[in-house]
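Anyone able to model this chain together with pyridoxal-5'-phosphate?
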Amino acid sequence: MIPNYDIPNDLIPSDPRFGCGPTLIPNETVQKLVDHGPHLLGTSHRSKAVKDLVKEIQQGLVNYFNLPSGYEVVLGNGGATFLFDAIGLGLVQKKSTHFTCGEFSNKWFKSHKLIPWIEAEEVAAEYGTGITAENRSDADMICVTLNETSTGVMVDSLPDVDEETILAVDATSGGGQVPCDLSKVDLFFFAPQKVFASEGGTFVAIMSPKAQKRALEINDSDRYIPGIMNWKTAMDNAEKNQTYNTPCISALFYLNEQIKRMNAVGYEGVIAEGNKRADFIYQWATNHPKLSCYISDQKYRSNAVATIDVDESFDVTPFIKELEQRQLVYGIGSYRKLGRNQFRIALFQAISFDDIVKLTKIIDLALK
Ligand SMILES: Cc1ncc(COP(=O)(O)O)c(C=O)c1O
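re: yes, here you go
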């Protein structure tokens, strides 16, 4: 497809996975799971081994995010999309306001919009631009997406909300790498298939005392909430270091290993690593005659997901296909529904900086 396109051996990345979700799970983590397998996989999720694992995850996140006392780390199945509905059904009293700038933030809005007994309002920015959320006196939940995976926009700041309002942050994409003061946030949730280098299907919801109170108030009301979305059960189980129902134990294992790795560097350190990657990749794109940064406003450019537009004279589709066929690079196409002539590259902590540099050189060779 690309004639005479040779990639020197020293440019071959140590790992081909640059996708934004799911992301790579380090090989050594998978090997460690194999070694631990007989003592963990296929044991009861109410057993000591699994409860210890959940406890380590909870404690690891408390340390990593320096969570104020009273915050609860709740785990369950279903991923982030499941939580969109569970939040609308179980944590919004009357109205949620959603600040949206891409597919995922819009999807969260739509899931609340469909619930007949609450109101949902969307404040939307055009794709490719960012949005700064504000408090709204008529909403009891403000919904913010920390990092919009579809476009590569991260939030620049979070609003102060009043005592009656829940600030909810979907941190699935950049959570753990995009700066965020969790003491300001009431519900910080994610599925761990990105910065947390695990698999999809699990959710983590970090709840402030205010969010827990809201969950109990709605639980005690006569509102119907499907059993699987019962926040009280999920919170009660979290206190016992258990997931809501039978978990995917391997995903918990991978998540815990990545939390340990991230704790070794510290949140500030991981943010700094992300910024270094971001500075490098945006500089590269800015200086290249055939590339440009899709997000023009620098303050919204993500340190976790980089979106780089490519001049129309070069069609990225056959190039990306060829790299995948050669098993050299996976997952650098633009978000499906965005459909741009674009590279979207994950800058997640588990992806090596050297590999990101190599990837840019591989692209340079093709663009010559
Ligand atoms: C910001 C954001 N929110 C939500 C989701 C949906 O997550 P899940 O597939 O776990 O439901 C994604 C998935 O990529 C995401 O990037």
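The chain has a mean pLDDT of 96.
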